[in-house]
Amino acid sequence: MFGVVVGTAGHIDHGKSSLVRILTGTDPDRLPEEKARGLTIDLGFAPMSLDDGELVGIIDVPGHEKFIRNMVAGASGIDIVILVVAADDSVMPQTREHLDIMTLLGVRRGIIAINKIDLVEADMVELVQDEIREMVSGTFLEDAPMIPVSAETGEGVDDLRQMLQALVRELPPRDEGGVFRLPIQRVFSSRGHGTVVRHMPSPW
After folding, report:
1. Where are the strands (E) in the chain, listed by range?
2. Taking a C-beta distance cutoff of 8 angstroms, is the pair 98, 83 a contact?
């Protein structure tokens, strides 16, 4: 079980899975339908090794509005969120919805990754930053670091990784004295075993 769990959030096709792939070396989209359609449907999981050897679990959530139930399942119990916003698309409906969900679930730490900066000019990135600042004003991400990146070229990815490591090291110990709860993150069928429920126990 990972000590720290990081989750993605953001609108469909803003590059959440691509960022997870370049950060971890693992493709979180494993279903044939996901690969065929080029979008995340179910939750994806990938381990990320920090400089000191600690392993962090990364959960990649779907961005499409039809799969919001899966997104909520993945977001339950995460410690840090990476809110991904595409530089060529800016803030979109699921960007706002995912931010609201993270807030309701009690997430309090995160990073904002402005992805796809290779597709736009620098002044467009600045405009997107302004729109994001307006959106996160008054939320737990109001003072969050904002990292311009490109999952395609790798630009800014090292900065994102270093900032993520810094946030992980700043996390206080988990409160283990609360009420037990069991967020269900994944349910699937296994031949010979039946229905398998994947979960992450955590105190309330």
Report:
1. 5-9, 44-49, 55-60, 80-86, 110-115, 146-148, 180-181, 184-190, 194-199, 202-203
2. yes
Greatest alpha-carbon span in the chain: 56
pLDDT at 9: 87
Tokens for 6?
A: 């990081």
Indicate the SS3 state at residue 186.
Answer: strand
| 8 Å CB contact between 89 and 37 | no
Sign of the CA dihedral with 26 first, then 30, 34, and 35 last:
positive
Domains of the chain: residue spans and CATH? 5-179 (3.40.50.300)
- Token code pair at residue 15: 């590059």
Show the low-confidence residues of the chain (pLDDT under 50): 1, 31, 33-41, 63-67, 201, 203-204
Q: What is the pTM of this model?
A: 0.77
DSSP element (H, E) containing 26? none
Q: Which of 102, 171, 172 is nearest to 136 (CA)?
A: 102
C-beta of residue 62 within 8 angstroms of C-beta of residue 10:
no
DSSP-derived secondary structure letter, 90 = -
Q: Which pLDDT does position 115 carry in this prediction?
A: 97
> Cα(9)–Cα(31) distance, rounded to whole angstroms?
19
Give me the residue label for tokens 């609108």.
11
Q: Tokens standing for 112?
A: 């904002």
What torsion, rounded to 10 degrees, do the Cα atoms 101, 69, 30, 85 define?
-30
Q: What residue has token string 């992980």?
A: 168
| Residue 124: strand, helix, or coil | helix
